[in-house]
Amino acid sequence: MTSVLPQSAAALVDPQGRTIRYLRISVTDRCDLRCRYCMAEQMTFLPRAKLLSLDEIAIIAERFIARGVTKIRLSGGEPLVRRDVGDLVRRLGRHVGAGLDELTMTTNATRLDQHAQEMVDAGIRRINVSLDSLDAERFRYITRHGDLDQVLRGIAAAKAAGLAVKINMVALAGLNEAEIPAMLRWCVEEGHDLSLIETMPLGAIDEDRTDRFVPLTRVLADLQTQFALHRDSHRTGGPARYWRVEGTATKLGLISPLTANFCDGCNRVRLTTEGKLYLCLGHDDQVDLKAALRDGGIDGLDAAIDLGLTRKPARHDFRIGRDAAPAVARHMSVTGG
What we know:
Elements: E1 22-26, H1 54-66, E2 71-75, H2 85-93, E3 102-107, H3 112-122, E4 126-130, H4 136-143, H5 148-160, E5 164-171, H6 180-190, E6 193-198, H7 216-223, E7 229-232, E8 241-245, E9 251-255, E10 268-271, E11 276-278, E12 286-288, H8 289-310, H9 332-335
Parallel strand pairs: 1-2, 1-10, 2-3, 3-4, 4-5, 5-6, 6-9
Antiparallel strand pairs: 7-8, 8-9, 10-11, 11-12
Helix pairs in contact: 1-2, 2-3, 3-5
């Protein structure tokens, strides 16, 4: 596999003057869980023949690095269900410190106990773990069949391997809202950060999201009665706004696409597992980088990236309401978290 990193090109700047530094890559739309807010129970996944090859993902990622991207996050679906993902991590990990500042991953941790050390050896130093409950029965209900002990073993293996862990928790009314303070206490005890996320209207699911929506303004007000929280200037290039838990190393991040729009500083684009570049999580505008690369090589890829940048909107248009259609038809697992 030949790296395309040495070739240079213009920096990635969108019509709003925002410089793109962050690429999120969904390496697979498949997942071994079926979280209720994310997927329908019966999902139709892409045929494997339609997916980008490992080499194509790496070439596209390296082209973005050459054009100024400094952070890449691998996601899914669940990235660790793709058998060759370790090869991809090793290849991209070679660029950390040589154009790339950070390579990270979002995972549900079901397979992390088998792969944590491999991820560290390949160049990953920090991971996000999707975990919406510390109650085994509630966790099984939210994920439809997940095993909490398996996930906790994965998180423990990651910590033992030296990975910094941030827990991602989607706040869900009537399910886990009351558990959020306990999750924050657990993160403090374990030395993890915690990001809380408002449910996003992406893709058709089997429930009405309105019933589960929790505004994080309400969650924060409740947490402030139980914890000493101070605003923190820490930024990771993502949408979270951070607070620090006094007397601890734990940071609390709030990702509020509905109650606190974060688009003004957006520096991200997303590559799907079939090669579509989405310029915004909440819009359908995209360009086909797989076709561009296969038909036109690096020049064709650059031209498609440039075209995509012209389509990046100023902001998303998420709304949630009784019987409201999702903002976009595709599920979160298609675009990547």
